[in-house]
Design brief:
It is a multi-pass membrane protein. InterPro entries: EXS_C. With 512 residues, this protein is an all-alpha fold. It is built from 17 helices and 2 strands.
Length: 512
């Protein structure tokens, strides 16, 4: 525990009389003090006047008054002799330490999570075995995308914290305002989202299992409506400037009609890792609009919100198409061929998504004999191409020219200098998660919702690792460009010698 002494403000009332003497007549010792003072300075005048125009206050009276009042003031501070007029006694406030507060909040957070798990589990056990799996799948569909968004915010806060501890100026890289969200504010947003989403899910499970179907159906609708209102609110609350920056960047991603900046394609890359989140959000909103929440009408394969809907692959491919058109826009502006190669990388995800969706629209024999091999080939091409681009282009590790030659300082980054195991881990995990990512993009495998949830979470962890190297690589490029411009603006030694010699020769010609 930490003791904090908080002195409170003390206000004194001034009056036309001194505390020691009533009336305006000066005391004898004050007269003597005044005469000596006037004879010394050769000036005859009043003492310092008070605000109400009263008589002058003798400094000697003030000294005597202060000495006389000192014991009484000490007694009043100790609680003896009544209250002092116009003053408040300083208070001692006991404040808990920050570590204690953090631990207390963490314990409350865990207790709340355990309560939600207990209530949710008991609610599921109340249902019949036949409907239990369908009920869990539906509840999971409404809430798992929001949980994954909360996870991404947590990880992004960790990214910002690491950048703040290092030499990477992420504020300059993303061209952020001074009012941008710090890692603490990102974690605060993630904490609230992590609390609200499981609470709403627990209420949904509890109400549905106890027969309150209409109230249960309103829980996800209310949650989505509140979050949408907060995101689109035009009022100066809930980090308005940051929300405006985010929405403006999203708009630039959807319509790449202007020059592409680093924040534009950086956020678009993150959206490609969240394509499954967008697909589940579309399924959830579809059921809410068609009033299929807390029902099994959506389970029919041919329904508008069923698992065979064409909207599923369309939403899955949307982030890749946005990134594809961004690359074309970059090629138009820069004429660099690497932009076309990058666009080719994103185009390889399109066959993976649509070939998987064809399983529900072709005969089983055709799927096994023709479409499934094509899907596997396209998945391998997409995974390997994406892995190569991450290492060679986005991170600039040049691993294909120096296979695991990590002793060279040129292959290190400033963030993780000297830690060889980090590079082995990042390379291996990136390759494995790139391959498993195609499992998530496959619409015909989405009924294994727990497996898909875990793979999607792991993909966000892979993207979390990717952010460190991508942002630091961009910062190194900006620093190198800035240093080159500064060196080009400064004249070289030879230029200075030529300039001095020409100046000397011109002066000699002037004298002749």
């Amino acid at each position: 525990m930490m003791m904090v002494y908080l002195p409170q403000a003390m206000s004194f009332q001034r009056s036309g009389r001194t505390d020691m003497h009533q009336g305006n007549a000066p005391t004898p010792h004050c007269k003597l003090f005044q005469q000596r003072h006037e004879s010394a300075i050769g000036f005859r005048g009043p003492w310092t006047k008070q605000r109400n125009g009263g008589q002058g206050i003798c400094p000697e009276d003030q000294r005597v008054s202060a000495e006389t009042q000192a014991p009484r003031l000490r007694a009043q501070r100790l609680g003896v002799g009544g209250e002092m007029k116009g003053a408040s006694v300083p208070a001692v406030v006991i404040m808990p330490s920050p570590i204690f507060l953090w631990r207390f909040k963490a314990i409350l957070f865990l207790l709340w999570g355990l309560c939600c798990c207990k209530i949710g589990w008991d609610s599921v056990m109340r249902m019949s075995v036949d409907l239990r799996d369908l009920f869990l799948y539906e509840a999971f569909l409404y809430y798992n995308p929001l949980l994954l968004v909360a996870l991404m915010i947590w990880l992004w806060g960790v990214n910002l914290w690491v950048f703040a501890q290092s030499s990477v100026n992420y504020v300059k890289v993303f061209d952020l305002a001074q009012t941008h969200l710090s890692h603490r504010e990102m974690w605060r947003c993630a904490t609230w989202l992590t609390l609200i989403v499981p609470t709403s899910m627990t209420a949904y499970l509890y109400l549905y299992s106890h027969g309150e179907v209409s109230l249960a159906a309103s829980q996800p609708v209310l949650l989505y409506a509140i979050l949408l209102m907060i995101l689109l609110s035009p009022f100066d609350m809930f980090y308005l400037s940051s929300r405006f920056y985010f929405l403006r960047t999203v708009w630039r991603i959807i319509l790449p009609l202007q020059a592409i900046t680093f924040p534009d394609f950086f956020l678009a890359d993150i959206f490609t890792s969240m394509s499954k989140v967008f697909s589940d959000l579309e399924r959830s909103v579809c059921r809410m609009v068609n009033r299929q929440v807390a029902t099994i009408a959506w389970f029919e394969a041919d329904s508008i919100c069923g698992s065979h809907s064409i909207a599923i692959p369309l939403v899955l491919v949307l982030p890749y198409l946005c990134r594809f058109f961004q690359c074309l826009r970059q090629y138009k502006d820069t004429k660099e061929k690497t932009c076309l190669l990058n666009a080719l990388k994103y185009s390889t995800a399109v066959p993976v998504i649509f070939l998987s969706a064809l399983k529900y629209h072709v005969f089983p024999e055709q799927w096994v004999s023709f479409y499934r091999p094509l899907w596997l080939i396209s998945a391998v091409i997409n995974s390997l191409y994406s892995f190569y681009w991450d290492i060679k282009r986005d991170w600039d590790l040049s691993v294909l020219t120096r296979i695991f030659m990590f002793k060279s300082p040129s292959t290190w980054t400033n963030l993780l200098y000297g830690r060889t195991w980090v590079y082995y881990w990042v390379l291996g995990s990136n390759l494995v998660l790139r391959c498993t990512w195609t499992y998530k993009l496959s619409a015909h495998l989405r009924h294994n919702y727990l497996t898909v949830f875990v793979i999607t979470a792991l993909e966000m962890v892979r993207r979390f690792q990717w952010v460190f190297f991508r942002v630091e690589n961009e910062w190194n490029k900006m620093t190198a460009k800035q240093n080159f411009e500064m060196s080009s603006d400064m004249p070289s030694e030879g230029d200075r010698l030529l300039e001095s010699s020409s100046h000397t020769s011109s002066e000699g010609e002037g004298y002749t």
